[in-house]
Amino acid sequence: MNEENKSIHDFDFKLICEYFSSLERQGPGSPEVTIKALSFIDNLTNESQIADIGCGTGSQTMAMASCTSGYITGIDLFPGFIELFNLNVHKLNLQDRVKGIVGSMENLPFQNEELDLIWSEGAIYNIGFERGINEWHKFLKTGGFIGVSEASWFTEERPDEIDAFWNDAYPEIDTISNKVAQMQKAGYIPIATFVLPESCWTDNFYTPQVSAQKNFLKKYAGNKTAEEFIENEIHEAELYYKYKEFYGYVFYIGKKIKFND
Ligand code: SAM
């Protein structure tokens, strides 16, 4: 990438992060869903080491902290999200056991077999589901758990428009049964899967974006990059409302089995 392109991309990235910093969540989900997913995990104590990968500003991390007692490290590539994350930690007086650090899911700062639980809501797609669950496996203790939410097809077939959109945005989107098979192959017992309620997308993700988009367009009036970005966000939301019976987020919970490294 030449310097000119690099600065254009840096600028895009900053804008996108600024937009998502203004929202409580950076992806579909809810505290209830986080707590439901956690209910399948039975190995946690107040000594547990937990990582929340691609934590954003930490909405789901704080929900986890409310019903676990171990140590949680949130990791995100974007320093602005981690700054907000750590502000939230202090507001909730959780600094003794929750911290946010800047880092990449491609190069996690953990020792082998250090973690009791790996968590990642709506973020593993950045590395790809199959690569993520395979590469992160070594960081879990035997008997440790992984919980990730991931875009998934609900049906074997779907209309061309939505099929093409997702195959361009994230070609690894797949059916629930194929994702479960990938987990099993990566050395996890599939413990549970469940589909996130539509309200995680509508009430908790797309609706709050309506006013965020207005403010953002006002601030960046005439900025083509900002306008195109918001157009894409609106298009993505419209597609969701049109085709939500065919896809959504699914939580996948797995347990690391013995003798599989
Ligand atoms: N988990 C949060 C939630 O559910 O609100 C955020 C989900 S957001 C869709 C995806 C997150 O992944 C963003 O916060 C983004 O900065 C982060 N991310 C993207 N690439 C990453 C990487 N290579 N390593 C760590 N985090 C990354």
Automatic annotation (TrEMBL):
GO terms for biological process: methylation. Keywords: Methyltransferase, S-adenosyl-L-methionine, Transferase. InterPro entries: Arsenite_MeTrfase-like, Methyltransf_25, SAM-dependent_MTases_sf. Residues 50-144 form the Methyltransferase domain. GO terms for molecular function: methyltransferase activity. This is Methyltransferase domain family.
